[in-house]
């Protein structure tokens, strides 16, 4: 019997290719729309029928990063002609830049909280997964199920208890609080995923290292970790995407110091219906996750198909 | 190099006893085989010697020092795994030097020792290759290199040829034995292949169900199996068992098989029950028209210089290894005679062999060899 997979016909290939292209267009569509809106003027952004051809402007980005105030003609006259390109954009509306906006801070908060909780989830998850995979842990299956059970309801269902706990512990609107919260949510995912990856690494490698004179911990970080990088990278992507995009808890638990970008971006719209600034904020917000994912893309693909092929 | 003494070693996993009170001694420089079917406890025993499992009770003396509860890294023992377990993220050179790095050996010396090992094993051209693309044989050599480079007290090998194909196994077995003879290192080798054990080992321990059934040289184990299990496990085809419902007293020189007297070596023990077993290797059965014990030829298997003839006798099927020049026809009734000094007697109740006197064993074997 022939077990080999038959080569797809030209028609099948063409059909599959078309499907992929259509799917890609559907998913890319909203993204391109957001990116395009970021470079429109406020008038073009709300034009109906929507404008596909327009004169690009950085107005949205200027508005995103600044706070502006309306100036009287006398003040404007006193200031003289605009000095920079962004001054010129603002002057069209008889405004002057009065200071930076909070977008930078909020963005930085997202970076700290997103990457911080991802690091913590992976660090704790790898250790726990290694222990579950290699040691005789009493009630192992029950513990694994218990860890997974924290995922069996939407996290927001426990929002009120968490809100009260955070208030008691003084964790509301702090970076630490948000890092702990996202780590708690991500940890079950990371333990389960990483246990799967570590299970696939033959235990003989560590035993060889133990015999070769290394301690258990040295065997773990010199032999197991290098081989688990694929699994760690793909798990890290999933953890980061969750923590980066999380909105509900961020709205509930942060308002100032530790507010992340997702709850902040919609507030940019203010009274001026400033869609281009919102779109600009969303566009920039996409960049870190995209860069991170592209950097780890090779691992992600391998991670998803890991264990499917016996090496 | 070291002597390893195993004393009353026992291992339980939860309610399951993998190894029951085993004792044996591995002499310095010996090539020692742990032989048995899968699940017999041989690998568990090896892993306890290595320090990968801790024994439930008992002692492991390495050069007189009890190491049973010491960690693996402190025992100075090398281990060759069945699947080689080469570190996949390191190249050949770094794989081999890994144990030296952990010991803090100076870099120049590591380099010299790796070069020496590579020369011995003939793997110099592949030193800087990643281990991923290597052939099974080369992986095996790298795994050996990683074990040898440390100059450990002993080598432990867990079915190291199990992952190789039949043709290559033969060659690797020879290489391994030659390497051992050259280095004179104490080696403990686990296998389930009795031919491999007989071919390579100085001494063999045969295990079954966590119990050491017998311990001795390949010749001792083949000629004088201590139990029915060993008699059946060693040799291909295995020893024939002719069962009969009669006790054997001490000092007996004959047994009765279906009314026919068969001469046996003089017994030094009596059976405990009334059931006994006569054990005879296929090569010790002769087809002899004059013999009173008769059987019908059921089948003949041609093997080149010899043939295996299966005979239906009153005590069941018996296989005889006879010269292939002998003409046998299926359906024909022939007489069977046995080479007396080579016969084994077992107590069917305990499964253990009866002690017998065999002053003529070696002469009888030589005579048989001369006749072909």
UniProtKB/TrEMBL annotation, chain A:
Domain ABC transmembrane type-1: 107-296
Entry keyword annotation includes Membrane: yes
CDD domains linked: TM_PBP2 (cd06261)
GO BP field: transmembrane transport
Matches recorded under Gene3D superfamilies: MetI-like
Membrane topology: Multi-pass membrane protein
Protein name in the entry: Carbohydrate ABC transporter permease
UniProtKB/TrEMBL annotation, chain B:
Membrane topology value: Peripheral membrane protein
Annotated InterPro entries: AAA+_ATPase (IPR003593), ABC_transporter-like_ATP-bd (IPR003439), ABC_transporter-like_CS (IPR017871), ABC_transpr_MalK/UgpC-like (IPR047641), Mo/tungstate-bd_C_term_dom (IPR008995), NA-bd_OB-fold (IPR012340), P-loop_NTPase (IPR027417), Transp-assoc_OB_typ2 (IPR013611)
Keywords noted in UniProt: ATP-binding, Cell membrane, Membrane, Nucleotide-binding, Translocase, Transport
An example molecular function term from Gene Ontology annotations: ATP binding
Top-level taxonomic group: Bacteria
One cellular-component annotation, GO: ATP-binding cassette (ABC) transporter complex, substrate-binding subunit-containing
Cell location: Cell inner membrane
Chain ranges of the ABC transporter domain: 4-234
Family according to the record: Belongs to the ABC transporter superfamily.
Protein name: ABC transporter ATP-binding protein
């Amino acid at each position: 019997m022939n077990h080999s997979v038959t080569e797809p016909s030209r028609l099948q290939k063409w059909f599959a290719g078309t499907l992929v292209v259509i799917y890609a267009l559907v998913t890319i569509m909203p993204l391109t729309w957001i990116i395009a809106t970021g470079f429109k003027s406020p008038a073009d952004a709300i034009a109906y029928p929507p404008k596909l051809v327009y004169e690009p402007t950085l107005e949205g980005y200027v508005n995103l990063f600044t706070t502006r105030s309306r100036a009287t003609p006398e003040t404007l006259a006193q200031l003289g002609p605009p000095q920079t390109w962004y001054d010129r954009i603002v002057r069209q509306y008889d405004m002057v830049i009065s200071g930076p906006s909070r977008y930078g801070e909020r963005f930085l908060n997202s970076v700290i909280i997103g990457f911080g909780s991802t690091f913590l989830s992976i660090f704790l998850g790898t250790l726990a997964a290694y222990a579950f995979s290699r040691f005789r842990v009493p009630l192992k299956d029950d513990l694994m199920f218990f860890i997974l059970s924290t995922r069996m309801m939407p996290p927001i269902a426990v929002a009120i208890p968490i809100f009260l706990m955070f208030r008691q512990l003084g964790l509301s609107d702090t970076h630490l609080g948000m890092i702990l919260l996202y780590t708690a949510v991500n940890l079950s995912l990371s333990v389960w995923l990483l246990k799967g990856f570590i299970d696939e690494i033959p235990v003989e490698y560590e035993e060889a290292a133990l015999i070769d004179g290394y301690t258990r911990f040295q065997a773990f970080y010199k032999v197991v970790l290098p081989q688990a990088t694929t699994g760690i990278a793909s798990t890290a992507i999933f953890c980061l995407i969750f923590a980066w995009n999380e909105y509900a808890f961020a709205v509930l638990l942060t308002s100032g110091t530790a507010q992340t970008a997702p709850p902040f971006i919609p507030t940019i719209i203010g009274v001026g219906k400033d869609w281009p600034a919102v779109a600009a904020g969303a566009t920039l917000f996409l960049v870190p996750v995209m860069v991170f994912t592209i950097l780890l893309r090779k691992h992600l693909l391998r991670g998803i198909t890991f264990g499917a092929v016996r090496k | 190099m070291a002597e390893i003494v195993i004393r009353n070693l026992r291992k339980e996993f939860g309610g399951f006893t993998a190894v029951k009170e085993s004792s044996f001694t591995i002499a310095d420089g010996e090539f020692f085989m742990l032989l048995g079917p899968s699940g017999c406890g041989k690998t568990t025993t090896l892993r306890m010697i290595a320090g990968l499992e801790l024994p439930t009770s008992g002692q492991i003396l390495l050069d007189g020092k009890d190491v049973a509860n010491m960690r693996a890294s402190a025992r100075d023992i090398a281990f060759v795994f069945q699947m080689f377990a080469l570190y996949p993220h390191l190249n050949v050179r770094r794989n081999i030097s890994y144990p030296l790095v952990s010991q803090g050996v100076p870099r120049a010396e590591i380099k010299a020792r790796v070069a020496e090992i590579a020369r011995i094993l003939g793997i110099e051209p592949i030193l800087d290759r990643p281990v991923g693309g290597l052939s099974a044989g080369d992986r095996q050599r790298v795994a050996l290199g990683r074990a040898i480079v440390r100059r450990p007290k002993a080598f432990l090998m867990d079915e190291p040829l199990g992952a190789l194909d039949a043709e290559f196994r033969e060659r690797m077995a020879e290489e391994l034995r030659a390497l051992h003879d050259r280095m004179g290192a104490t080696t403990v080798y686990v296998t389930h292949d009795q031919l491999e054990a007989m071919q390579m080992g100085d001494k063999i321990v045969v295990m079954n169900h966590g119990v050491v059934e017998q311990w001795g040289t390949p010749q001792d184990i083949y000629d004088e199996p201590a139990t029915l299990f060993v008699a059946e496990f060693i040799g291909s085809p295995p020893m024939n068992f002719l069962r009969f419902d009669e006790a054997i007293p001490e000092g007996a020189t004959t047994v009765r098989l279906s009314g026919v007297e068969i001469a046996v070596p003089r017994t030094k023990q009596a059976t405990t029950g009334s059931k006994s077993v006569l054990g005879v290797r296929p090569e010790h059965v002769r087809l002899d028209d004059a013999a009173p014990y008769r059987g019908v030829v059921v089948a003949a298997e041609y093997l080149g210089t010899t043939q295996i003839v299966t005979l239906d006798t009153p005590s069941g099927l018996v296989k005889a290894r006879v010269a292939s020049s002998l003409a046998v026809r299926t359906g024909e009734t022939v007489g069977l005679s046995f080479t007396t000094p080579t016969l084994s007697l077992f107590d069917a109740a305990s499964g253990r062999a009866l002690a017998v006197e065999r002053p003529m064993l070696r002469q009888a074997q030589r005579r048989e060899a001369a006749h072909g």
